[in-house]
């Protein structure tokens, strides 16, 4: 596991580093921890060095933690973020970005341990994938890489942040592959969206984090929007703020 701590307080970094080392020792986890007191230095490093988990302070010198988190998710959507701050003010914005947790300073080791236990549970889903035939070859696609899936000219089209995988099969044969994953929502016929990639919605569209618009079927729009709202509520409620 690779961890980055981004905080302009050396004292807070030292305490978190101590807590992380204790957790990793107690749970027998091998980890690499890097610390940054400058958000600019972190973002420069993050372009070439990816991290599994990032601890972000909200109040930094140039960019706040929310801005940094948006940049992180754009570059590496699977990266998990835990905010640490002295204010509750940005909690809703943090969870709208699907932050894993929101730690209020000063926090105890037990509180951090709860957050890291949540991370280990969340990280386990990264190993889940589907396998599709693309041309003559079998292609594995991580579930967490799928933004949405649609259907065109007898081909399933799996849209990921880096590419579109096309496989010749019916949507009816494909859809059971995602039925076990609660983050996928039917937004119109032969289209399923990963709600983790939804940024917002308008009256007739979901707007994804990359700016794409996906139409929402008119006859079921109210129910679909409510399902998404429930998903966001459950996500926020699961990240207990104390």
Question: Explain this structure to me?
Answer:
It is a single chain. This protein has 242 residues and is of the alpha/beta class. The protein has seven helices and 15 strands. The strands form four sheets. Strands 2-1-3-4-5 form a five-stranded parallel sheet, with helices on both faces. A five-stranded antiparallel sheet has the order 10-9-8-12-11.
Q: Which key phrases capture this entry?
A:
alpha/beta, 2 domains, five-stranded antiparallel beta sheet, five-stranded parallel beta sheet, OB fold (Dihydrolipoamide Acetyltransferase, E2P), Rossmann fold
Output the number of helix runs. Answer: 7
Percentage of residues in helical conformation: 25-40%
The CATH superfamily name of the largest domain is Response regulator
Structural class: alpha/beta
Q: What is the string of helix and strand elements?
A: EHEHEHEHEHEEEEEHEEEEEH
CATH class value of the largest domain: Alpha Beta
Quaternary structure type: single chain
Main beta-sheet annotation: 5 strands, parallel
Number of strands: 15
The order of strands across the largest sheet is 2-1-3-4-5
Strand content: 25-35%
Give the domain tally.
2
CATH architecture descriptor of the largest domain:
3-Layer(aba) Sandwich
Query: How many whole angstroms does the radius of gyration measure?
Result: 19 Å
Give the N-terminus to C-terminus distance in angstroms. Answer: 26 Å
């Amino acid at each position: 596991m690779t961890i980055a701590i981004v905080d302009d307080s050396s004292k807070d970094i030292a305490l978190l580093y101590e807590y992380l080392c204790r957790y990793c020792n107690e749970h027998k986890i091998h980890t690499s921890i890097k610390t940054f007191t400058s958000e600019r230095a972190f973002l420069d490093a993050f372009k070439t060095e990816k991290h599994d988990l990032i601890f972000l302070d909200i109040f930094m010198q140039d960019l706040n933690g929310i801005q940094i988190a948006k940049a992180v998710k754009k570059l590496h959507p699977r990266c998990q973020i835990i905010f640490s701050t002295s204010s509750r003010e940005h909690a809703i914005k943090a969870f709208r970005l699907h932050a894993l947790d929101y730690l209020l300073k000063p926090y105890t080791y037990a509180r951090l341990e709860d957050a890291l236990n949540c991370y280990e549970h969340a990280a386990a889903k990264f190993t889940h994938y589907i396998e599709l035939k693309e041309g003559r070859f079998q292609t594995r696609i991580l579930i967490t890489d799928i933004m949405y899936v649609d259907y065109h000219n007898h081909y399933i089209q799996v849209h990921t942040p880096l590419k579109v995988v096309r496989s010749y099969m019916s949507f009816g044969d494909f859809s059971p592959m995602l039925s076990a994953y609660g983050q996928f929502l039917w937004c119109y016929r032969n289209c399923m969206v990963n709600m983790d990639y939804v940024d917002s919605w308008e009256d007739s569209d979901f707007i994804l984090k990359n700016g794409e618009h996906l139409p929402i079927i008119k006859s079921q729009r109210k129910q679909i929007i409510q399902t998404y709202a429930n998903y966001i509520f459950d996500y926020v409620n699961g990240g207990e703020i104390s």
